[in-house]
Design goal:
The protein is an alpha/beta fold and about 625 residues long. It contains 20 helices and 27 strands. It binds fructose -6-phosphate.
Length: about 625
């Protein structure tokens, strides 16, 4: 995720662009940059670090121009650095571009351009696109608008881009597929941004560009005009101008009252971003670019240890089952904090998989350092690009879910779980898992974003359940096998946001002690999907009911009997047993969210917590 802003009009562009970037910093803030056009020449400045630093530079150096584009970056291709920061300039200096998204086939295009003599200064996919536009423009002698269109017809992936050309100083081209772009329509001036927050203070009139559309803003006889067309068919359409009614704070949260709810609802998209470009169905396999160099070491592994803290460790418990089932590699899950102080057995045949959203958790970082001392192969599943864990591990997989702002992890956790299953397929395919089995699992993974969308449609009914249980002083969350870890995650979500005491455990463990806590005021959420553990889970539910306890049952759609047994029932779509916890996460996140809001808590920043725990 990155933020882009553009301005074209009569005013000085930089104050508008810098303020816009500040508003978009929630989308990423590892580097920032600006390009301003003045009398047919560009001044481009970009730097690793926050927008504040960029702002200081622009003010001190009195940059000027009435046309400009700017970017705040959240690295995907290439580490955060000055040279990877946007805007990117094409070889001849004609094209300047900012981009939010991922060009999937950039390497193939880069090779062709290198063969034609193009040189690259950065590791980014965006610089490739800048040069592709230049190459087309130069060779076909078309306008910048048409060159952008032809270039985009050749790329796959997701993007929102802003493009300027030195040859056409009064023109700005905008295009979008998969990433957002909004155009603000002022009085003979236009504002473009990733969301409406940089725009509302200038104009309430906006045009939301649709996927597959491009817009060109041109100066004709001192008047600016906006035209919109589809990228592939060139079909023009008149801009649909809407009037924004939303307040500023609501806009930052995309219309949601809290970041946590926004991030819960982002999960269909964040899962798409996690999976994108990594599934090769025809091979029944997965492609993880970062692991390719280590395929021999991965083949030699005899044991796996998954490590992480909090939510990250709970998603690891899902991975534990998946690794054993699909790859046959004995796997254990260990707190980062404890792994650091344990003796490693057979270290040279053991791989450590460290999971961390922030990539900065001290306990997990220490576990990796210890594994490296013991000469283990270390792998990371990390969301924040260029973070300490991402840099220290031998090889890694990024989540690609964009910044997670709410303290309680939601979209990172579902992404971690799906990546673990994908990694299990990858390791399994090295060890005899059939192509057909790989293909079956991957097909189900591809359906996950839609299934999550279905679960989210039940938000209202979960809100009603939250209302009913909001005063409970205690809560149990139970599950078996793949869903045991999910139960622990459900309990963590509830306790950290609502301050209700909640315990998550393996449902079978209940009658070995914890069941003595059950009474009519102690509700239990049981994850009981239609899987190999369903009958056992049904028995656990009966046992709780027999002791007067209240049960919320989380079951698969089409379950005919649970509404007769449980007090409340939440349905999730059917999927493979190993993917079910991912769907089960969502209603539990919603339950925790709604109960916490009902209790008047600051859900995005629960008391005593921090988003990343960088102390031991
Ligand atoms: C809970 C939560 C924490 C984190 C834990 C590890 O909602 O967010 O339990 O999962 O602090 O953080 P990362 O993943 O950044 O290492």
């Amino acid at each position: 995720m990155c933020g882009i802003v553009g301005y074209i009009g009569k005013r000085e562009a930089w104050p508008i662009l810098i303020k816009g970037l500040e508003r978009l910093e929630y989308r990423g803030y590892d580097s920032a940059g600006i390009a301003l056009m003045e009398s047919g020449a560009f001044s481009v400045y970009k730097k690793k670090g926050r927008v504040a630093e960029l702002s200081k530079f622009v003010k001190n150096n009195k940059l000027s121009g009435g046309v400009g584009i700017a970017h705040t970056r959240w690295a995907t291709h290439g580490v955060p650095s000055d040279r990877n920061a946007h805007p990117h300039v094409s070889n001849s200096g004609d094209i300047v571009i900012v981009h939010n998204g991922i060009i999937e086939n950039y390497l193939a295009i880069k090779k062709i351009l290198i063969n034609k003599g193009y040189k690259f200064k950065s590791d980014t996919d965006t610089e490739v696109l800048a040069n592709l536009i230049e190459d087309i423009k130069k060779n076909t002698k078309v306008s910048v608008e048409e060159a952008v269109r032809l270039a985009l017809a050749e790329v796959t992936g997701a993007y929102a881009i802003l493009v300027l050309s030195k040859d056409e100083p009064g023109t700005m081209v905008v295009a979008k597929v998969g990433s957002p772009a909004v155009i603000g329509v002022g009085k003979n001036e236009f504002f473009i941004a990733s969301d409406a927050t940089p725009i509302v203070e200038h104009t309430k009139k906006v045009v939301y560009l649709e996927d597959g559309e491009m817009a060109t803003i041109e100066t004709k006889k001192d008047k600016l005009t906006l035209k919109i067309k589809t990228i592939l068919s060139k079909k023009t359409k008149s801009p649909y101008i809407q009037t924004l009614k939303t307040k500023m704070e609501e806009l930052e949260k995309g219309g949601f009252p809290h970041f946590m709810l926004k991030e819960i609802f982002e999960q269909p998209e964040s899962l798409r971003n996690t999976i994108r470009g990594r599934i090769i169905l025809e091979k029944g396999n997965v492609k993880f670019g970062g692991l390719e160099k280590f395929s021999k070491e991965l083949q030699n592994l005899k044991h796996l240890v998954i490590t992480g803290m909090g939510t990250a460790r709970f998603t690891g418990l899902i991975g534990e089952y998946a690794f054993e089932e699909l790859s046959g590699i004995p796997t254990k899950v260990e707190y980062g904090s404890e792994f650091t102080y344990r003796k490693s057995a057979d270290a040279q045949h053991t791989g450590l998989i460290a999971i961390s959203q922030s990539g900065e958790t001290a306990d997990t970082l220490n576990a990796i350092k210890k594994a490296k001392q013991d000469k283990m192969l270390t792998l990371g599943i990390v969301n924040v690009i260029g973070s300490s864990i991402a840099r220290i591990v031998d090889a890694g997989i990024y989540n690609h879910v964009g910044p997670e702002t709410a303290v309680a992890s939601t979209k990172a956790s579902t992404s971690q779980a799906v990546l673990l299953v994908m990694l299990a397929v990858y390791l399994g395919r090295m060890r005899g898992l059939s192509k057909k089995s790989g293909e079956e699992i991957l097909k189900e993974i591809q359906k996950l974003p839609e299934l999550v969308e279905e679960v989210l449609k039940n938000a209202k009914s979960i809100q009603k359940i939250a209302e009913k249980y909001k005063k409970s002083p205690n809560f149990f969350f139970l599950g078996r096998k793949y869903c045991a870890g999910a139960a622990m995650e459900g309990a963590l979500k509830l306790k950290e946001c609502s301050y209700i005491h909640a315990e998550g455990c393996n449902a079978a463990e209940l009658k070995h002690g914890p069941i003595s806590l059950i009474d009519k005021n102690f509700p239990t959420l049981v994850i009981a999907p239609a899987d190999s553990m369903y009958e056992k889970n049904k028995t656990h539910i009966e046992e709780i009911k027999a002791r007067g306890g209240k049960v919320i049952a989380l079951v698969s759609s089409g379950n005919p009997e649970m509404k007769e047994i449980a007090d409340d029932v939440i349905y999730i779509p059917k999927t493979l047993e190993m993917l079910t916890p991912i769907l089960a996460f969502i209603p539990m996140q919603l339950l925790a969210y709604y109960i916490s809001v009902e209790r008047g808590n600051d859900v995005d920043k629960p008391r005593n917590l921090a988003k990343s725990v960088t102390v031991e």
